[in-house]
Design goal:
By secondary structure, this protein is α/β, with parallel strands linked by helices. It has a single domain, classed as Nucleoside phosphorylase domain (Rossmann fold). About 25% of the residues lie in helices and about 25% in strands. The chain has five helices and eleven strands, in the order E-E-E-E-H-E-E-E-H-E-E-H-E-H-E-H. Strand 9, helix 3 and strand 10 form a beta-alpha-beta unit. Helix 1 packs across helix 4 and helix 2 crosses helix 5. The radius of gyration is 17 Å and the shape is globular. The two termini are about 25 Å apart. Bound molecules: hypoxanthine.
Length: about 250
């Protein structure tokens, strides 16, 4: 295991870190199978960093088929003590329009059928007793604060807080589903936030999400949501995320 370090999980729109000085790519096989790809180890603005694209290096793994357990395990194995999860989302709340960067503080999980715990007896060293992690505050406050400090240093406008709805995907939601999520108190919606966050907590890693709004959620505007629209909005948003990461690494 290397020294404690930050890992970045890239989402749609961030399949690679442009500025990383690549050291090596490590193929890590975990007791839970294979992660989305080899873990990239490199140097980013003077600090060691790990990187893993959630959907694979060629963006081919759908949200419900990602091996979340293998991803989190592999990053911990590679020496991560903190994980910054970058994620494309749909915006529900009025201040979360396309291109906006949001650091959520709560989650409601609507996903289903995903392997969502290390504590299910499938790995020999972890089957002795069932463990119920505390998940009152699903994101690491310490890592969130580091993000706010970086955002303010780099003068990047980020929304502090919001409830992330984790849906199953890969389809987008219906307008009625978004109305329901809104009634539930959700402010942004994505497909990969869970079980990523709770698995990180199970392994006692700091975990925070940097969400980039790719589109208004279904029914929030007239018309339909297109992949072209998502990609265009993500280009600008991910530029800000890159600046934010730069400031984070330089802090
Ligand atoms: N819903 C769920 N996930 C998403 C969306 C959305 O509207 N946009 C980007 N990821």
């Amino acid at each position: 295991m290397g020294t404690p370090t930050l890992a970045i999980i890239g989402g749609t729109g961030l399949d690679a870190l442009v500025d990383i000085k690549l050291d090596k790519r490590e193929i890590i096989i975990t007791p839970f199978g294979e992660p989305s790809g080899p873990v990239t180890r490199g140097n980013l603005f003077g600090q060691e960093v790990l990187f893993l694209p959630r959907h694979g290096y060629s963006h081919s793994i759908a949200p419900h088929l990602i091996n979340y357990r293998a991803n989190i395990w592999a990053l911990r194995d590679a020496g991560a003590d903190s994980i910054l999860a970058v994620a494309a989302v749909g915006g529900i709340r009025s201040d979360m329009g396309p291109g906006q960067v949001v650091i959520p503080d709560q989650i409601i999980d609507y996903s289903w059928g995903r392997k969502s715990t290390f504590f299910d007896g499938t790995y020999e060293t972890r089957d002795s007793k069932v463990t119920h992690i505390d998940f009152t505050h699903p994101y690491s406050n310490a890592l969130r604060q580091r993000l706010f400090n970086a955002a303010s240093a780099a003068k990047i406008d980020v929304v502090d807080g919001g409830t992330y709805a984790a849906t199953q995907g890969p389809r987008l939601e219906t307008a009625a589903e978004i109305t329901r999520l809104e009634r539930d108190g959700c402010h942004l919606v994505g497909m990969t936030g869970m079980p990523e966050a709770s698995l990180a907590r199970e392994l006692e890693l700091h975990y925070a999400c940097c969400a980039v709004v790719a589109n208004w959620a279904a029914g929030k505007t007239d018309g339909i949501i297109t992949m072209e629209e998502i990609e265009t909005n993500l280009t600008g948003g991910m530029q800000q995320v890159s600046e934010l990461i730069k400031a984070l690494m330089s802090a």
